[in-house]
Specification:
Elements: E1 3-5, H1 9-17, E2 35-39, E3 42-51, E4 54-62, H2 65-81, E5 85-91, H3 96-101, E6 105-116, H4 128-139, E7 143-146, H5 149-166, E8 189-195, E9 198-208, E10 214-222, H6 230-245, E11 249-256, H7 271-283, H8 290-298, E12 304-312, H9 318-327
Parallel strand pairs: 4-5, 10-11
Antiparallel strand pairs: 1-2, 2-3, 3-4, 5-12, 6-11, 6-12, 7-8, 8-9, 9-10
Length: 331
C-alpha cells in the first residue's frame, strides 16, 4: 500500500542515507510545502508538489538502488489515481535509468556548478576583477560575519521585500530555491554583510551530501542600493571559513538553460525541447535571468559542471514545463 506524507523528517533521513545520485541540491527536499511518498516495505522517499494536473517531482527517488524503480512505479500509480501526470525536475544523470525504463522522455535542462575548496585561491590575474570588486565592497565599511538567524531574521525579511520590489514585483520563489527558518535551520549556515546595524546582504548555505560533500551557496539577497561586490565579499569570507574547517566543496547550485551540451543528452531525448532550452539560454532573460546567474557563478572558476535533467511522463511537453515554474511560484 502506498503512503503519502507531508513530514520532511523522512526526506532528511533519506538524503543523508542515500546520496548515491549526488544531487547537490538535495537539501531542498526538506522545504516547507513539499509532499512525500514512501512505501511501507521499501526505504527512501519521493519528493513532489501537486500543481494543477501534474505532480512535479524534485530530483529522483532518494533511495537505495534496489528501491528506486519500485518507488517510481508507486509514484506513477499515485499520479494515475489522481488523473495527473508526472514531470520531474533536477534529476541527475544517475537518476535517468529508471525514468527511461518507464517510458519517460529525459532532456537536459541546465547545469549545476561546484568549486573544489582545497585548491581554491583568489590569487592570479584570472581573479583580478573579482578581487577588485570585493575590495570595493569592503572599503564601503561593510562588516561580514557568520551569524545566527534569530539576530537578523526581521531585517532579512525587510531586505527580501526590498529586493523583490527591485525586480519589478517578482514573486518569491520556492520549491527549487532554499529558504531560512523552520525546523532545520540549525543545519544551515548564515553569513551576513552589514553597515552598522543595517543589513546590506546575506547568503544562506545548506549542507550537501554525497561524493562531493560540503555546502551549497543557497538563498542570497542584497539591498538594491548596496555597493558592487557585496555578495562576492560575503562568499569569499564564507569560503575562507569553510577552508579553515577542511570543507571539500562549495556548490553554487542549479542554473536553468546553462551548461547545455549534446553529449549530456540521453537516448530518446526530444530534439525540439533541446533546441528550446538553447533558445531560452540565448533569448530567455525575461523568463529567467540564467545568464546573469551563470555569470556570478563563472567568476569563481568552477571545477565541476554537473548536467541536470527534466523527465516528462511520455513526450516532452511545454505545459509540463510551465507547471514546474508554477510549482516554484514563478508564474
Amino acid at each position: 500500500m502506498t503512503e503519502t506524507l507531508t513530514m520532511p523528517d523522512l526526506a532528511l533521513d533519506a538524503i543523508r542515507r542515500y546520496p548515491d545520485a549526488d544531487n547537490p541540491s538535495s537539501f531542498l527536499a526538506v522545504n516547507g510545502g513539499n509532499h512525500y511518498l514512501r512505501l511501507p516495505d521499501a526505504p527512501g522517499v519521493i519528493v513532489y508538489r501537486p500543481t494543477g494536473r501534474y505532480l512535479v517531482q524534485f530530483g529522483g527517488p532518494f533511495a537505495p538502488k534496489e528501491s528506486r524503480a519500485r518507488l517510481l512505479r508507486a509514484f506513477l500509480d499515485l499520479a494515475a489515481e489522481q488523473d495527473r501526470e508526472i514531470v520531474a525536475i533536477q534529476l541527475q544523470g544517475a537518476d535517468a535509468a529508471e525514468y527511461l525504463d518507464e517510458g519517460f522522455t529525459v532532456n537536459q535542462i541546465g547545469g549545476s556548478y561546484a568549486l573544489r575548496l582545497d585548491s581554491f585561491s583568489l590569487r592570479g590575474t584570472a581573479f583580478m576583477q573579482l578581487r577588485n570588486k570585493i575590495a570595493r565592497a569592503l572599503r564601503s565599511g561593510m562588516a561580514i560575519s557568520e551569524a545566527p538567524l534569530d539576530a537578523w531574521h526581521d531585517r532579512m525579511r525587510t531586505l527580501d521585500t526590498a529586493w523583490l520590489g527591485s525586480k519589478g514585483g517578482a514573486r518569491p520563489l520556492e520549491f527549487l530555491v532554499g529558504e531560512y527558518g523552520g525546523p532545520y535551520q540549525d543545519l544551515r549556515r548564515l553569513f551576513v554583510g552589514a553597515h552598522g546595524d543595517e543589513l546590506t546582504a546575506y547568503i544562506s548555505y545548506s549542507p550537501v551530501y554525497g561524493s562531493r560533500p560540503g555546502w551549497m551557496h543557497d538563498l542570497s539577497r542584497r539591498r538594491p542600493d548596496s555597493p558592487p561586490g557585496v555578495m562576492e565579499a560575503i562568499n569569499k569570507a564564507a569560503i575562507e571559513t569553510f577552508q579553515a574547517e577542511g570543507v571539500e566543496w562549495l556548490h553554487f547550485g542549479y542554473t536553468p538553460f546553462s551548461g547545455l551540451s549534446a553529449e549530456h543528452e540521453f537516448p530518446g531525448h526530444n530534439r525540439g525541447f533541446q533546441w528550446f532550452m538553447k533558445e531560452l539560454w540565448t533569448n530567455g532573460e525575461q523568463i529567467y535571468p540564467a545568464q546573469t546567474q551563470y555569470a556570478y557563478k563563472e567568476k569563481w572558476k568552477q571545477d565541476v559542471v554537473l548536467p541536470e535533467y527534466i523527465a516528462f511522463q511520455g513526450e516532452a511537453s511545454i505545459p509540463a514545463l510551465v507547471h514546474v515554474f508554477r510549482a516554484c511560484n514563478a508564474v
